[in-house]
Amino acid sequence: MSAIGATLSGMTETTPEPGSYDDPEMPWNTLTAETIGDWNTKVIAEFRANAGAVGGVYEGGTMILLTTTGARSGRPHTVPLSPMLRGEQMYLSSFIEKAYPAWWHNARREPHVTVEIGDRTVPAVARVLEGEEYDEFARWVLQNNPDLAAFQATVDRPIPLVELTLE
Q1: Which is it for strands 76-81 and 64-69: parallel, antiparallel or unpaired?
Q2: I need a labelling partner for 22 at 20 to 30 A (CA). Which of 3, 16, 32, 128 fits?
């Protein structure tokens, strides 16, 4: 089993994350721009205190912490995300409705990132998918991830998709 497979054991290409996009109780439907930072801070602290295990609506799901370098500030920026796997390749996306998330812009500007998986911290390279490669992968995501498909139906722009390669 590969390092990614061993680290994310139990997750398959079609394993949905807990909750659904339309569930009004899910954090992405209850948080505002003012409270998302507080929520992220709590999730990050819980993740680090429990070697990657997080409870609440994310209990039993797979989560990583992604640290990027701020595109404008140059400062480290850490966010909790639930990765997708396609074979052994890890991908990231987001449910942010009004614009692409800060981590996407940061990765586009500076692709060298840090990923926390369980109790491990590893360097990685994030690559924003574009063109035909984006189109092909987006078709696969929308067929295999009902939450992202439901989200895509609510926004006019393409969902953000980033390939994450651990070094």
Answers
A1: antiparallel
A2: 128
